[in-house]
Write a structure and sequence with these properties.
The protein is α+β, with helices and mostly antiparallel strands. It folds into 2 domains: 111 residues, no CATH class; 105 residues, no CATH class. 57% of the residues lie in helices and 13% in strands. Strands 1-6-5 form a 3-stranded antiparallel β-sheet. α2 packs parallel to α4, α4 crosses α5 and α5 runs parallel beside α8. The protein is globular, with a radius of gyration of 20 Å. It starts with 9 loop residues before the first helix and ends with a helix. 41% of the residues are buried.
Length: 249
């Protein structure tokens, strides 16, 4: 009587992919590293991290991000085939890969819980990457806040956006962390009706502390998809983290 074939669950498959996929993809790209810019390689790795997190969970996504950063260092930073980095630009690229990978893995895991297609759109990933890079290099958190304020109208197709520092005032509709919209105690069907035709707040938190809110001015008749709303939440989180880092200095 033959033994039963043991099937691997999605989480185990995701952990296996987190260990194998970054190494396999980077190994395949090694012959082209002289012609491939590191930013392109980073975006490829971020897509892998997204796929792993969507298949498994946050921990699998975080492991994929860490492993991708390690093998990126080994294969694509000088001196090659050594776990050392000699150039500041390569150090920054490796750190950004880790930061962006962790951020996007959280986003992908959140999308997976909502049973939606995970975010692999290059434009969305580039916006998250650019904001993370700015947060690493900006001397003032206001620079990151201004950057996100300029990004949100493009992501959500808004008429405008502004940022308010300080405490919450009033009870406008709110874009929540899971991409849903609430208005008072009611849930607004953003997938069918888009954002309400009034200012919508998107709060910026850093380490659990409230620092302000982005006030969104929706364009009537537009329906930003859930993916776009999740990206907007992630950008706001990055601004909140920048403000929290500055407050702790």
């Amino acid at each position: 009587m033959g033994g039963r074939v043991r099937r691997l669950g999605p989480d185990r498959v995701a952990f296996l992919a987190a260990l194998v996929a970054p190494l396999g993809v980077l190994g395949a790209l090694v012959p082209f590293r002289d012609s491939l810019p590191n930013t392109s390689v980073v975006l490829v790795l971020v897509v892998i991290v997204v796929a792993v997190a969507a298949l498994g969970n946050r921990l699998a996504g975080a492991l994929a991000a860490l492993w991708a950063a390690v093998w990126f260092d080994f294969f694509f930073t000088q001196p090659y085939q050594r776990f050392t980095i000699s150039r500041p630009a390569d150090i920054q690229a490796a750190l950004l890969l880790l930061v962006v990978g962790l951020v996007v893995s959280q986003l992908a895991a959140r999308a997976r819980r909502l049973q939606v297609v995970t975010i692999t759109d290059a434009d969305y990933l580039t916006r998250i990457h650019d904001t993370a890079e700015l947060a690493q290099s900006a001397n003032a958190p206001e620079t990151v806040v201004d950057h996100v304020t300029a990004q949100l109208p493009e992501v959500l197709r808004l008429r405008g956006c502004r940022f308010e520092y300080g405490t919450l005032i009033g009870h406008p509709p709110r874009l929540e962390q899971d991409g849903s919209v609430t208005w008072g105690r009611r849930r607004w069907d953003a997938d069918q009706f888009g954002l309400p035709d009034t200012e919508v707040e998107l709060c910026a938190f850093g380490n659990g502390r409230f620092y302000g809110r982005f006030m969104l001015d929706p364009t009537p008749g537009t329906i930003p998809p859930l993916q776009a709303r999740l990206v907007a939440v992630t950008l706001a989180d990055q601004a909140g983290s920048a403000l929290d880092t500055a407050a702790g200095r």
